[in-house]
Amino acid sequence: MVAMAGATARPGGGGPAAGARPAHSVAGRGSWRGDQDAAAHAGHQVVDVAVDGADAFIVTTAERARDLALPPVLINAAVLGQVRHNEEDQTVSLREHGQQVVVDTLKAKSDFWIDDIDIYFPYDGFTPITLNWIDNAGWCKPGEAGAFLREHWVAERGWALINGRIPVNPHGGSLSEGATQASGHIREAVHQLQGVAGDRQVTDARRALITAGGFFFNAQGLTLHRA
C-alpha cells in the first residue's frame, strides 16, 4: 500500500503552506462557477490562470507514513489514460478520448466510486474539460453536465454540492487559485483527508476522487482515502 504523508504549496511564490491558509483566489472568491462567471463578465477567456507556484508531496509506504507527523492518506488507485498514441489530439469525438479510458480503468481498479466519496475534484483548466469529466465519471448522462451543475449549485456558498453532501473543488480549482496542472486539486484532496484544510474543511471527509488532466495525453484519475 502506498501513502501520501504530506502536501504543501507555495502559490504565488511565497506565503504559508496551503493547509494553514484560506483558499487562494485571484478573483476574490473561492468557487469554480463564481470565477467562471466573473471571467465571462470581464470579457476574458475562461481558462486557468498562470501563476508562480508549486506543490510538493511525500509518497512512501503506508507503514512508513504512519510514523510521520501528519496523518497519512492512502492511494487506492491511480490511472493515466489515452486512446491512441501520437494522434489523440486529432480525436474527432468527445465521446472517445483519454477521459473514458481513465474512468473505465479507475473504476475497475478502485475499491470505491462516486456513490461512496466525500469530495470530488474535476480538473477545470478549461471549462469544457470539467463538464466532460462530470459526464464521464457518471454523475449524469452525456451532455447533461451543465444542467447537473445548475441543479446542485448552492448560490449562498458559491459552489456545487452534489446531492447535498459532496463538494466540488472546495479550494476553488484552477479557475480560482491558478494553474498548477491539477497538483492543487491533489494537494487539497490530501489536506481534506488529513483534516488540515482550515475553513474549507469538509466534515469527516474520508474518500476523494480526482479526475485530472484534459481530453488526451494527460487524462488522469486518482482515488484517495483516509488511513
Tell me the radius of gyration: 17 Å
Intertermini distance: 11 Å
Helices, by number, come to 7
Count the beta strands: 9
Would you give an account of this structure?
The N and C termini lie close together (11 Å). The model is unreliable at 11-45 (pLDDT under 50). The protein is globular and about 50 Å long. Helices cover 26% and strands 22% of the residues. It has 227 residues and is α+β, with helices and mostly antiparallel strands.
Question: Briefly, what is this?
Answer:
With 227 residues, the protein is of the alpha+beta class. It has seven helices and nine strands, in the order E-H-E-H-E-H-E-H-H-E-E-E-H-H-E-E.
Quick tags:
227 residues; six-stranded mixed sheet; Peroxisomal Thiolase, Chain A, domain 1; 26% helix; 22% strand; three-stranded antiparallel sheet; 7 helices
Provide the fold topology.
Elements: E1 2-9, H1 32-41, E2 55-61, H2 62-65, E3 73-81, H3 98-109, E4 119-122, H4 127-137, H5 145-151, E5 153-154, E6 159-162, E7 166-167, H6 174-177, H7 183-194, E8 207-212, E9 219-226
Parallel strand pairs: 4-8
Antiparallel strand pairs: 1-2, 1-3, 3-9, 5-6, 6-7, 8-9
